Amino acid sequence: MTSERVGRRLIAVASGKGGVGKSTVAANLAVALAKGGRKVGLVDADIYGPSQPTLMGVEGSKPEAREKTMIPVATSFGVPILSMGQLVAPGQAIAWRGPMAASALGQLVEGAWGPADTLVVDMPPGTGDVQLTMIQKYKPAGAVIVSTPQDLALIDARRAIDLFVKAGVPVIGIVENMAGYACPHCGEVSDPFGQGGAEAAAKELGVPFLGRVPLAMAIRAASDAGTPPAAGNAPEAAAFTDIAGKVEAWLKEPR
User: Fold this and answer.
1) pLDDT tens, 202-248?
2) pTM (two decimals)
3) Residue 224: exposure state from Cβ atoms within 10 A (0-12, 13-18, ≥19)
4) What secondary structure does DSSP assign to 89-148, as a single string?
5) CB under 8 Å to 216, separation ≥6 — which residues?
6) Using CA atoms, how far apart are residues 66 and 50, in angstroms rounded to an integer?
7) Which whole-number Å values give the CA distances from 3 to 6, 110, 133, 212, 227, in the listed order?
8) pLDDT digits (tens, 9 = 90+) for 66-85
9) Of 133, 148, 156, 191, which is the most buried if we count CB atoms within 10 A?
């Protein structure tokens, strides 16, 4: 198991608060990286609110175990996953204190990931026990921060960035999610959450801006149906493909 982990890098997808679409970005980033040829696994570290089984179309699946090590569940998109959502009954609350949640995180990260050289980790929102365990014990190679354009979300995104910077984890960049809504009837674009806030924050903080993901009905519908848009060639895949390209370029840079 130790030899399997040599050279494997973790990419933490994080946000300072919930409700900004972090899990959707994580799922589509993993799928887009795999589509580009990288061997990727997806860890749903959002212990209290796991959604990756639904997003990846494997809801109801259960991972098997080999010598007390969990075997990730295969998906149709070439990205195996492990999630707390596969270990508890649908709708069941996970009322665990920090040490139990941190232990569960370890079981997910230390699964039998086989040839995967990169794990995309869908982090829980905030800066609590699970985040600290991930940073201190597993030291991600880098972090992708997800925010919406409005000021309140950006305040919390700054806190998430500060956590990773203080821990010595490089911030790969910021993704601005739910950025602009195109009316399906007239085509006019409106900005219910504001515009450009994440890009401005990235410039202010001196971190890269990875791109915008629109507030689109097609993304919501595909995600609910367990078919990540990044897996297809529809227009809504373009934003995720572009973001994954920048993350891939970052991964290839010598360090």
Assistant:
1) 888 889 999 999 888 889 899 999 999 999 998 889 999 999 999 99
2) 0.90
3) exposed
4) -TT------HHHHHHHHHHHHTS--TT--EEEEEPPSSSSHHHHHIIIII--SEEEEEE-
5) 181, 182, 236
6) 23
7) 5, 12, 22, 38, 33
8) 888 999 999 999 999 999 88
9) 148
